[in-house]
From TrEMBL, chain A:
<feature type="transmembrane region" description="Helical">
    <location>
        <begin position="71"/>
        <end position="93"/>
    </location>
</feature>
<keyword id="KW-1003">Cell membrane</keyword>
<dbReference type="GO" id="GO:0005886">
    <property type="term" value="C:plasma membrane"/>
</dbReference>
<protein>
    <submittedName>
        <fullName>Nitrite reductase</fullName>
    </submittedName>
</protein>
<feature type="compositionally biased region" description="Basic and acidic residues">
    <location>
        <begin position="1"/>
        <end position="17"/>
    </location>
</feature>
<feature type="compositionally biased region" description="Basic residues">
    <location>
        <begin position="18"/>
        <end position="30"/>
    </location>
</feature>
<comment type="similarity">
    <text>Belongs to the NrfD family.</text>
</comment>
<feature type="transmembrane region" description="Helical">
    <location>
        <begin position="105"/>
        <end position="123"/>
    </location>
</feature>
<dbReference type="Pfam" id="PF03916">
    <property type="entry name" value="NrfD"/>
</dbReference>
TrEMBL record, chain B:
<dbReference type="GO" id="GO:0045333">
    <property type="term" value="P:cellular respiration"/>
</dbReference>
<dbReference type="InterPro" id="IPR014603">
    <property type="entry name" value="Formate_DH_Fe-S_su"/>
</dbReference>
<dbReference type="InterPro" id="IPR017900">
    <property type="entry name" value="4Fe4S_Fe_S_CS"/>
</dbReference>
<feature type="binding site">
    <location>
        <position position="143"/>
    </location>
    <ligand>
        <name>[4Fe-4S] cluster 3</name>
    </ligand>
</feature>
<feature type="binding site">
    <location>
        <position position="146"/>
    </location>
    <ligand>
        <name>[4Fe-4S] cluster 3</name>
    </ligand>
</feature>
<dbReference type="Pfam" id="PF13247">
    <property type="entry name" value="Fer4_11"/>
</dbReference>
<feature type="transmembrane region" description="Helical">
    <location>
        <begin position="314"/>
        <end position="334"/>
    </location>
</feature>
<feature type="binding site">
    <location>
        <position position="178"/>
    </location>
    <ligand>
        <name>[4Fe-4S] cluster 4</name>
    </ligand>
</feature>
<keyword id="KW-0411">Iron-sulfur</keyword>
Length: 369, 338
């Protein structure tokens, strides 16, 4: 922008419409969003100096998918279901009937909440079956559709068996009961096999976008999501199972807490400061801070959950809450990251500059020939 | 099986079409754009695109459209610049030229692989005769119809498809509005259309317009319906200065290279091409642009990468994570038996 005598009549410049000359390294250390004026036009002297950046009136460059609260809920319950699928398979193999039953009921509950949430968030919910027209490896959403539907098939069968047993075989199944029992083993296996993919694919779904914070998180987000799923499922199972039978759930939850915290720090370490900032600041930052706190509290709780059912329930709920907050935090951090074009432009300019410095000059979209 | 990234000669053939059709595309030469917005109007009219939000003055020069979106498939950007910025643009452009063609290295004056004579700027008099005090950049932006289209890659319903012209089009009767493509586009082009309820200024109450295809993803189709009839897209047809050129993609790229050589000879080193490089992050775009400043000035990303380029690596990371999860579960059951 130029400055002439007319500038005093000029409207306040939008955030992001400023530039800085020279000085590559300095801006990486500090938050580039606190440099410059607050948009009231009163800091004009400082803003010319500081931000090497020219945007188009500060308008967003990329768009975030229109994924709102239902998707946040799904990210949480999808993970919960996925890891519960592994828990029920392990419990079935080790003959832990109580844990098996709990995990299966949690799983079907989670699927029962998550699937409608996915459908509601569609622009045309009545066309949800169009998801099953194709099987497409290049689309994590397509893979997820097939993972979820096969998982749900398994989960439905195992849960039906559990409910039937719990009600003393009073479900009006008639001659179908032996068939249901026959299907229980294979269904449990299907649910177990699809459990881990169900917990992990959503991380790839977010990573495979141009949304800066999600895309940059792709190197570590799968670790965070499977850990978050494990601590949620472990926590729920721990809360709903007697102390004697909840041993594996406690251990899985504890492992999940460690993985979640380490994974999140690793994820952020691989990101440009401008890309990781939304995970640390603003509302998403707050959600993720509380997620970490709850996870730590719940993790410590698992160490004592063997002694008291109260502690088991409290820490189990804390862990489930931690997982939900993590998912909403990551979801909203992505939405936050597209609002300021600098989060898109500056990391891109930096990586382009880095490649050029390394002698790779042939892969730029902008060419002088 | 299609590639996820890198140069690709014929995206339509790769998508299963024969070689009967040439890839079509735009070359938008912003150096001769006058900002009349006839392309925006022609696009809206032909495609029956509804009004985009409320009418408002945005305070961004003569641009009151804002950006590309579900209802805006051509968007004319207006940028006002002073002398400093013009000189800076010339400098960055000169640096770009000195980076030279890939695989040749620093420009040596040798002829380029395409048979075009390389322009040797060390001999040419590139000192601009006069730097204007002020300039107005105008650029008509549009869907890039990428060689490797992020939106198309991630679409879970198959609603997005590659046409026989090598373009990327949404089948509106298939799309269920999941929104995945919106995040898949590194240029922020495609968007899900809402119900289009708007309230024009000064009019009480809200006006319901007739909004076709609400709830589905929408973007430029490169006028697929016109192309199949042998017509050119509405925007190119209406452009009064031929700033928007339409034709075979190869020809468009060729004329872009010719045009930029011409401008460089005139000392306009600020001119540069955007999307003409098949080695770039999206495999080259179907819509090529000639810009007069850095792409970010026009709101274009400086180094877009199709997200799917890294998908194999993401799947591997997820596989490791799943392995860890399985191991943790197994250990939990072994350890939990005590």
């Amino acid at each position: 922008m130029t400055h002439s005598s007319y500038d005093e009549y000029r409207q306040p410049e939008p955030e992001g419409g400023r530039r800085k000359r020279g000085g590559g390294g300095k801006r990486r250390r500090r938050s580039p969003l606190d440099g410059g004026a607050g948009g009231d036009g009163s800091h004009e002297m400082a803003m010319v100096e500081d931000v090497e950046f020219e945007s188009y009136y500060g308008r967003p460059v990329v768009k975030a998918p229109p994924w709102e609260t239902p998707i946040g809920i799904y990210l949480f319950v999808g993970g919960l279901a996925g890891a519960s699928g592994l828990l029920q398979a392990g419990a079935a193999l080790s003959g832990n009937a109580e844990l098996r039953r709990t995990a299966r009921l949690v799983a079907i509950g989670a699927v029962g909440v998550g699937t409608p949430a996915l459908v509601i968030d569609l622009g045309r919910p009545e066309r949800f079956l169009h998801m099953m027209r194709v099987f497409k490896v290049s689309s994590p959403m397509s893979l997820g559709t097939w993972i979820l539907s096969s998982y749900a098939t398994g989960a439905g069968m195992t849960a039906a068996n559990e409910v039937d047993r719990m009600t003393g075989e009073r479900l009006p199944l008639g001659p179908l009961r032996p068939l249901l029992r026959l299907a229980e083993g294979p269904s449990a296996a299907l649910q177990g096999v699809m459990g881990a993919p169900l917990a992990a694919y959503t991380a790839v779904l977010l990573g495979d976008t141009a949304v800066p914070t999600w895309n940059a998180a792709r190197h570590g987000l799968p670790y965070v999501f499977v850990s978050s799923a494990s601590l949620a499922a472990g926590g729920m199972a721990m809360a709903l199972t007697s102390r004697r039978n909840a041993g594996p759930a406690r251990l899985l939850a504890a492992a999940g807490v460690v993985g979640d915290i380490v994974g999140m720090h690793y994820t952020k370490s691989r990101m440009h400061p401008l890309e990781s900032e939304p995970l640390e600041e603003g509302t998403p930052g707050k959600l993720l801070t509380w997620a970490e706190r709850l996870a730590v509290a719940g993790g410590i709780g698992t160490l004592f959950a063997r002694r008291s059912r109260t502690i088991a329930v409290a820490s189990g709920l804390a862990l489930a809450g931690a997982s939900a907050l993590t998912r909403f935090g990551v979801l909203h951090a992505g939405h936050e990251s597209v609002k300021d074009p600098r989060r898109v432009m500056i990391p891109q300019k930096d990586r382009l500059e880095k490649r050029r410095a390394a002698g790779i000059t042939g892969d730029s979209i902008t060419t002088g020939w | 099986m299609g590639l996820l990234s890198g140069p690709e000669a014929d995206p339509a053939a790769d998508a299963g079409w024969g070689h009967d059709h040439d890839r079509k595309g735009f070359f938008t030469d912003t150096s001769i754009c006058i900002g009349c917005k006839a392309c925006e109007v022609a696009c809206k009219e032909w495609n029956h695109n509804p009004q985009d939000g409320n009418l408002q003055i945005m305070g961004s020069s003569y641009d009151n459209t804002g950006s590309l979106g579900a209802n805006t498939w051509r968007h004319v950007a207006f940028v006002e610049q002073g002398k400093d910025r013009i000189e800076e643009a010339r400098e960055t452009g000169r640096k770009l030229v000195s980076l030279g063609m890939p695989s040749i290295g620093p420009r040596s004056g040798a002829s380029t692989p395409g048979g075009r004579p390389g322009e040797d700027l060390s001999r040419a008099d590139t000192a601009p005769p006069d730097t204007p005090e002020f300039r107005w950049l105008m650029s008509s932006d549009v869907c890039k119809h990428c060689t490797h289209a992020g939106c198309l890659d991630v679409c879970p319903t198959g609603a997005l498809f590659r046409t026989e012209f090598g373009t990327v089009v949404v089948q509106e009767d298939i799309c269920n509005g999941c929104g995945t493509c919106v995040g898949g586009c590194p240029f922020g082009v495609i968007e899900r259309r809402d119900d289009g309820t708007v309230a024009p200024k000064g009019q009480r109450g809200r006006v319901q317009q007739d909004v076709p295809n609400k709830g589905t993803a929408n973007k430029c189709t490169l006028c697929y319906d016109r192309l199949v009839e042998g017509e050119e897209p509405a925007c190119a047809k209406t452009c009064p200065t031929t700033s928007i050129k339409f034709g075979d993609h190869d020809d468009m790229v060729e004329s872009a290279h010719e045009r930029i050589a011409q401008l460089h000879e005139q000392g306009m080193t600020e001119a540069r091409l955007y999307g003409a490089n098949p080695e770039d992050g999206v495999g080259g775009t179907g819509s090529v642009f000639l810009l007069l400043d850095e792409p970010e000035v026009y709101g274009l990303p400086p180094d877009p990468q199709v997200p799917t380029k890294d998908l194999p690596h993401m799947y591997r990371t997820a596989a490791v994570a799943m392995g860890g999860m399985l191991a943790a579960t197994a250990l939990a059951f072994l350890g939990g038996r005590r």
